[in-house]
Design brief:
Elements lengths: L2 H10 L5 H17 L3 H15 L1 H30 L3 H13 L11 E4 L4 H10 L6 E4 L4 H14 L3 H14 L4 H13 L3 H14 L3 H17 L3 H14 L3 H13 L9 H10 L8 H17 L2 H15 L2 H22 L1
Helix pairs in contact: 1-3, 2-3, 3-4, 4-5, 5-7, 6-15, 7-8, 7-9, 8-9, 9-10, 9-11, 10-11, 11-12, 12-13, 15-16, 16-17
Length: 346
């Protein structure tokens, strides 16, 4: 049956009661979602607005808002279950989140769908990974992050092969989903795929765009080299990880590495650290690609006098570089934003 016939049939079943017809629309839309007729699903939903005008539109908007609210509450429940290490229950919730999200939609020839976590990821991707200038459509929900959590639960349930496959889906939806790349690298190492582990770490370091991601890259490398009894590289990676984020797990590893070396390691010279990593083909600090992108974005937003976004990018740059000149700029822009806010309220 073609789309017009389906829509006509649904419309003929309307009762004239907006609440009953709303239930009918949701029921039919869900049916066509399950059989992947997403173009039909969307138009069935719009029938309510077509028949009831603003009242129908209002009801659809309220339903959409309630649905988003429920999904956010489910997501919070999932995260709490993960914190409590109830991975099977958390897995059930994230599967529900994925299965009920209508990700697919009709695409034009030049359209591509991605799920970025923030504005910088989106801009970074456009500037560095979109050579064909595709029309990048950002999905409304972080579906790539849902797949990350599904992979995370599978990993903790020791189903490493399935975790790798699921994390592939996360990375497909967000090629710079560094958390998924890092978790996948851990799964590779659990299965003994050392080269894939190292390749993934390299890839993650290239696109890591916050202090937690960079710290985790070096922490995983430190653990790996500690197991190889390579105390020099393990120590260097611990130091770099600590430069961004200090955790209890990292401190425990750091102390083990120092004990292994008899407390004889003490790299205070940055050049010495760089040399050790370079000799082992390990990137030192944030990648030039990330820093150059930030430089371009900062210059662009400053020229446009788009202070809120300029402030946002300045904070990312400072977090990655610890450059005190950037901290001074952050303070200046913060004052500017406060001044503009005061002017609006007067």
């Amino acid at each position: 049956m073609d789309k017009e016939q389906i829509l006509s049939e649904v419309l003929n079943r309307f009762t004239g009661n907006i609440h009953e017809d709303f239930k009918l629309v949701l029921q039919e839309a869900e049916h066509y979602r399950k059989i992947t007729r997403f173009d039909v699903m969307k138009d069935i939903i719009l029938l309510l607005e077509k028949r009831y005008g603003e009242d129908g539109k209002k009801m659809l908007v309220e339903a959409a808002q309630n649905n988003i609210k429920k999904r956010k509450e489910l997501y919070k429940d999932m995260v709490n279950l993960e914190k409590n290490k109830e991975y099977l229950k958390a897995q059930d919730i994230v599967v529900k989140l994925i299965d009920t999200f209508p990700m697919e939609r009709p695409l034009q020839e030049n359209d591509v769908l991605y799920s970025f976590n923030n504005l910088f990821e989106h801009m970074y991707f456009l500037l560095n990974y979109n050579p064909d200038h595709k029309n990048v459509i950002k999905l409304e929900e972080p579906i790539a992050n849902y797949y990350f959590h599904l992979g995370y639960n599978l990993f903790n349930l020791e189903d490493y092969e399935e975790a790798i496959e699921i994390l592939d889906k996360s990375i497909e939806l967000n090629p710079i989903q560094v958390d998924s790349i890092l978790l996948q690298s851990e799964a590779y190492l659990k299965l003994g795929y050392v080269n894939k582990f190292l390749d993934n770490i390299d890839r993650a370091l290239l696109d890591a765009n916050n202090k937690f991601q960079i710290a985790n890259c070096y922490f995983l490398l430190a653990k790996y080299y500690y197991e190889l009894n390579n105390k020099e590289v393990a120590y260097a990676c611990c130091l770099l990880s600590r430069n961004f984020v200090i955790t209890k797990e990292l401190d425990e590893l750091f102390n083990k590495v120092r004990q292994m070396s008899g407390n004889n390691l003490d790299f205070k010279d940055v050049k010495k650290l760089q040399e050790i990593l370079q000799n082992n083909k390990i990137q030192f600090g944030p990648s030039p690609k990330i820093l150059n992108t930030l430089k371009k974005l900062l210059a662009d937003q400053k020229t446009k006098e788009s202070y809120p976004i300029y402030y946002y990018f300045l904070n990312i740059a400072y977090e990655l570089t610890h450059d005190f000149k950037l901290k001074e700029q952050i303070d200046e822009v913060k004052k500017k934003l406060e001044s503009l806010k005061t002017q609006k309220t007067e």
